Amino acid sequence: MKTLAYLATVLAGLLLTTCSPTHSRVATLAPTPSMLLDQLAIDVTPAENREFSFTDKQSGYYYATTHANEQPAWHAGWNIATHRVLHDYELLLDGTPLDRQSARVRVYPYKLQRTFAAVTEELYLYDNQPVIGIKLTNLNGQQLTWRPAGDLTTVEADAPEGLWLIPKEAPTHRILVAPWQPAAITVQNGALSTAAASGGFVLVYGHSKDEARALLGQFRAHHEAWLQQRRRRMNTLVANTSPIASNSPQLDKALPWLLLTTDELVTNQQGWGIYAGLPWFNDYWGRDLFISLPGACLVTGQFETAKKILLSFAKFQNLDPTSKDYGRVPNRARPDDIIYNTTDGTPRFVIEMLDYLRYSGDTAAIREFYPAVKRAAEGSLKYWVDAKGYLTHDDADTWMDAKIKNVTPLSPRGNRANDIQALWYEQLQASAQLADYLHDDASARQWRAVAAKVKQQFPQDFFDAQHPYMADRLTVAGQRDFQLRPNQLYAYSLVPDPVRRMQLTKLVWQELVYPWGVASLSQHDPDFHPYHENWHYYHKDAAYHNGTVWLWNNGMAMQRMLEENQPDIAYQLFERMNHQALAEGAVGSLSENADALPRPGQTRGKPSGTFLQAWSNAEQLRVWYQYFLGIRPDMLRNEVVVRPCLPSALTDVAFAVAVGAGQLRAHYQTGATSTYSVQAVGVAPTMRFSLPGFEEVAVSLPAGATLQARHTGATLEVTVVDQRGKTTQQLIRTASPTLQAQLQKQNAFFEGTHFAVPYLQPNLKSLSTYHEQAISY
Q1: 776 pLDDT tier (thresholds 50, 70, 90)
Q2: Residue (of 572, 581, 712, 704) closest to 628 by Cα position
Q3: Helix H or strand E encompassing 275
Q4: Sheet hosting strand 185-188, strand order edge to edge
Q5: What DSSP character marks residue 598?
Q6: Chain segment 60-70, per-residue pLDDT in tens
Q7: What are residue 92's DSSP bridge partners?
Q8: Phi/psi of residue 718, nearest 5 degrees
Q9: Labelling 346: which of 8, 325, 333, 661 has CA 20 to 30 A away?
């Protein structure tokens, strides 16, 4: 087992750099060999033929599968600003096509590498550059040829610099295909050929030919610097957040991959934002974005980026006081369109402003945020709040938003859904806290009064004596709808009874949580759809929120288990998601959906939806840092909650987390005697440390000092050690009889808890009609 001396060796690479004190950290973790991007490479076999993607961090991405010579997906290839501009390409060596099915393929976070018998191909994208580099090395031949595949481009007249292509979906723009280095070329039958010594090909995208030519020159002069900058950015991001070392190789590899594929989606397409998912959500969706923000930017220490995203989205807020959408942020913001048909996006927007402030301590931002905060509350109170204080909404204005032909809701949740009321309550509380900072006492009193009314009313309206779980919504007529859905996991702030929360957690887990994710509707419901795509029976949108698994709900399902001190149960799902990122589907990422039930002959629900979904990835990251590691900062109060909740499978984890203007460097070791070491670098917070069964211990931690906790069953010893190794404070706590009894009760209650057991009930309505001709869009 590793010791604290080992931790000191591992952390010896920590370097201090100067950053904006209110936006980022002063401590940066220098990558060690185990963290380097090349160590994250994943080998893919022809039989696996996995998906992969890269973005340019602005408005472009490239997607394909590793071994297919012909990409079957309509969305494959290069996409710029929501336009498909190139489907695929083919490479030839001395006139013979390179067969991808024969290649050895290795996928890295920053490149794809295919090794053929006579050549090695490497594909790159670059930050903030609409460029694809195709580098060809280890050549055993004389002539290279590149030609486009698919029907998304037409060939324009050839020119001395290369092959010009016109994208059909962006016909005023141009793609220039040219040799990697200047070389003589020939263009024939829409293909570009050049000498092998040229080193490969480059594709540049421009508004005009002049722009494309200029960009080609910049590539040839700076491509190596562009690549190194991209690698440094990724390495630094990994080094600042991922486990430095743990006893789980899968964990150590999966988390950096999830971190980096999530970061692919953090872009500057129209102001800063987060793509909802690839391939078809390469734009900004309000609710998705703010669900993703904690895992994508806050736990990863990208505070300045988080602030830019919040301020960018504030510019999209509806400013018309006469509109029922006044104060709302968009459901979707595209370069050519903004729509406001969401209720939960706006509460999450305000909640994430407070989350950003808690992580960063950037109190100066409160004044920047507050006008948007106030409009958000005013608009809801004016147009959407009922006599009980509930936030009303249309049937499809929650995250369950699918409609038939964009008209008839397929999962109606109007007009008062349980999760919406909890988000509204949390929005009001967050808004009031920000009002306090700016001495807007009247607004703070008003908002807290409405929040109190909601909290008082909720238990009696959303529960009854016949159901062991809460209603999913109240209808317009005030009737409770008891469809069993996961949305109640988000409403615990309105459930004051801890016993009821415990019961809800177990019931939802056993009824809705499969080993591959959380279903959107119980399999015992008559409206249940067992498979996401089952076109001979129904349109896939009918199944979207009526049974289909949504991986983003995994985060809250695990959080609720961890709040009940059940890390081993939660970790079963966490491990399976890490396995998916490394071995299934798109390399390094989590999908949007999965079938609720395994198809015949299969053992798990088939992944579906987008191949890379921001909130799926981000929630996996968030729950790891905030609830497994238990690091929850509130730098507005200059304090950090540290409440480790590691599963028995993890006995040794070292990591770093950004807080405020600094960083926490920590090492947890668990066993018969468990030790927890947390050092503050660049910050001096109050640390609120606790373990299950013990009262919280609060100690002030000067900058550079370390909190060391030693747990030996019935005793918890907490020590503060300064930079010179001198003990400055020591506290010894015995287990709390009350909290120990609570822990024993939780352990007994959750003993034997299992995943939902797939069951295909007979005579399902969704499977009652077979369509000989498959349904289509």
Answers
A1: confident
A2: 572
A3: strand 273-278
A4: 96-97, 88-93, 143-149, 191-195, 185-188
A5: P
A6: 999 999 999 99
A7: 97, 145
A8: -115, 125
A9: 661
- Given a cut of 50, is residue 371 above it in pLDDT? yes
> What pLDDT score does 25 carry?
31
Angstrom distance (rounded) from CA 237 to CA 221: 26
For 243-272, how does the pLDDT look when each residue is reduced to its tens digit (9 = 90+)? 678 999 999 999 999 999 999 999 999 899
459 within 8 A of 474, measured Cβ to Cβ:
no
- CA end-to-end span of the chain, whole Å? 57
Whether pLDDT at 763 is above 90: yes
Average pLDDT of the segment spanning 144-162: 93
CB 564 within 8 Å of CB 502? yes
Q: What is the spatial distance between Cα 472 and Cα 424, in angstroms, rounded to a whole number?
A: 15
> In this predicted model, what pLDDT tens digit does every residue of 44-92 receive, in sequence order?
999 999 999 999 999 999 999 999 999 999 999 999 999 999 999 999 9
Instruction: Give dist(CA 655, CA 483) in Å, integer.
Output: 41
- What is the rounded distance in angstroms from the CA atom of residue 525 to the CA atom of residue 397? 22
Asked if residue 391 lies in contact with residue 345, where contact means CB atoms within 8 angstroms, the answer is: no
Which tokens hold the place of 491? 């409403």
DSSP state of 488: G
333-339, Cβ contacts within 8 angstroms, sequence gap of 24 or more = 333/270, 333/273, 333/283, 333/284, 333/285, 333/286, 334/82, 334/270, 334/283, 334/284, 335/59, 335/81, 335/82, 335/269, 335/270, 335/283
